[in-house]
Fold this sequence. Notes:
Order of helices and strands: HHEEEEEEEEEEEEHEHHEEEE
Number of helices: 5
Shape: globular
Strand content: 35-45%
Number of strands: 17
Amino acid sequence: MKRQRARLPIGILATLFVATYGEAARPWQTALEKSLASTYELTKMSFDCARITKVGTVLVIRNENISGDDAGTLSLGYNDVVDGRVQRSTAKGIVFKPGDKFYVRWIFVKDTEVRFVLISVDIHEVDVLGTTKKNRYQSTVNFRFPKGALETADAAAVKKVVDEVLATQATVDERKTRTVELGQTPEQVEAALGKPETVVKLGAKMTYVYKTMKVIFQDGKVADVQ
């Protein structure tokens, strides 16, 4: 069993290498990756993923539907995020909840996406062929961007997009304390609460629907909160 656990990460690394470096990275991709690695400190782990050798940035899931797989398998569980929404997932192991926490293992920049490879802070009980063992879960979250957008983007611009789905605890706490006031514009509400789950437009009336509230605009200004 010990030998098997030591072999599996090799396959994971090989899969990542092929998926990420199928073609040579361009200078702007390399520069953005380095900048993002400074923004999100990467966590280092032992070769068999059994222990953490250096703790980096911890991110908190803010959205539903992100899933992942046992860190001891070859599956990486890809999740695609477009406009702040998780649109596709290939993971089969577990669906995470808002509030679940992850370390950042790698960050890769492609032509139209920024890829975060994550591993869970918590250790879960995992069923493997009828045997229960304790292990972490891993997940890959791909943030999609319009073609050409990343070539001129900096780490701050990427972080703003990532924050809608994966944020540091400090960012989550800060948003909890932000308020919505009468007369604010949609842009001001989004700056405080992030993008809404749903937007309902009925003539001069518009409603932003969030998980815990509805913000109602009349003629482009906040008129009520429910």
